[in-house]
Design brief:
386 residues; Alpha-Beta Plaits; 10-stranded mixed β-sheet; 4-stranded antiparallel β-sheet; 18 strands; 30% strand; binds adenosine-5'-triphosphate
Amino acid sequence: MTTAIEVRGLRKDFPVRDKGLFAPRTLKRAVDGLDLDIPRGRVTGLLGLNGAGKTTTIKILATLLRPSAGTVRVDGLDAVGDARAVRRRINLIAGGERMVYTRMTGRENLWYFGQLYDVPKAELRRRTGELLDLVGLSDAADTMVERYSRGMTQRLAIARGLINRPDYLLLDEPTLGLDAPIARDLRRVVADLAAHDGTGVLLTSHYLAEVEELCGHVYVISAGRHLAQGSPAALKAATGSHRTVRLTVTDPTERTRAAADAFGATRENLPDGGELITLRHPDDMAGPLTAAVVEAGGSIGGLEIAEASLEDAILTLAERGEAGLTTHGPARGGSADTTSATTGSRTEARSPDRTTAGTAGTEGTAGTVQTVVDAADTAGAHGGGR
Ligand SMILES: Nc1ncnc2c1ncn2[C@@H]1O[C@H](COP(=O)(O)OP(=O)(O)OP(=O)(O)O)[C@@H](O)[C@H]1O
C-alpha cells in the first residue's frame, strides 16, 4: 500500500451563472487535471496566484468537496468512496475560515472534535490541555468562542486541526492573521510533525518565507493546472532567480581579479580604488568566493548577499504558463534537483497580485527545466460539484 496522498487527473467544475438569475448555467473549471503526490514525513507546498485552484484542491483532499473527475487516494483509500476512513487520517487548518463552534468554549470545541475523530478519552483530555497551551489559549479555555478575538479563534482552529494527530495535515494559509510568535510556534509544530511523527503536510501560504522554511517540494499551479514542481531553489534557478553576492575588495590585484573571474563574477572599479565583485548564482557562493579572493591576497571591505525571491519565480512561472509559452532547455547549476514545468495552452486573464508559495527546503542547486505545452483541453462540461 502506498503511504501518500496521490492525486491523479483531478478536476473540479463549479456551475456558475454569469449574468442574472435566468441566464443558463455554465461550468467554471477551478481545477484542471492536477497530479500531486503528498508523501508522509514531508511538507509539500502548493503555490499559485489568486484563483489558481489551491483552496479547491485542498477542500477536495479534505473530502469537503467532491471532484468532478480524477482520483484522490489517501494511503490507497479513495477520498470519495472511502471518505469516512479518509477523514480519520487527515485534518485541515484553513486560515480565515471559521472552523470552530462559537457557542462552545475552546475546550468544549476540542473535546467535541476529538470525539468526532474517536480520540480515546484519556488521550483527548491530555491533548486538549497540551494543544490549548500550544496555541496560547489555556487562560481562555473555558470562555465561549464568540468572545474570542479573530486571532484567538484562528489559534483554536489550529488546535482543532491537530486534535486527531492526523497522518496528513492540510494547511490552507494557516498563519493568516496570526501574531508572529504564534505563527512561528505553528511552523515549529508543523516541521516537527513532519520530521518526527512522519505526518504528510500540504501547505499553501502567501508567506513565501514560511514556504521556503518548511517545504521540501512545491507544486506551482495556475488556472487549476500544473505549471512546475521542484524545490524552491530549483524553481528560482529555473526562472533565472539567483542569489546575488556583492563583495568589496579594498586592494584589488591581478590575482584577486583572476579569482573573481574564475567564478564568472563581474567587476567594477570603485571611486576609492577598491573593486566591487558581483556574482549571481543559484547556490550560496558567498563563502567560496570570499575564500578565493582572500586566498589571492585580497582584503574584504564588505559583503552583501541578496536572496533570490521565490515570489519572482512564481510570478514568472505563472506568466509563462498563462502566455502558453514554451521553453526547453537546461537550467544553470547543479543537477541534484529537477524542476519540471508544464504550461497549459489555456490562457486566462489574471492579475498577478498575490503569490502563494509552497516549497521545498534549501537545496542549493539548479535543476533541469522541461516545459511542455499541453494540448488544448477542449473537453466539455464535467459533472458539477457540490
Ligand atoms: N463555489 C464556487 N463556485 C464557482 N467558482 C468557484 C467556487 N469556488 C472557487 N471558484 C473559482 O475557482 C477558481 C479557483 O478558486 P480557489 O479558491 O480554489 O483558488 P485559490 O488558488 O485558493 O485562490 P486564492 O489564492 O485567492 O485563495 C477561482 O476562479 C474561483 O473563483
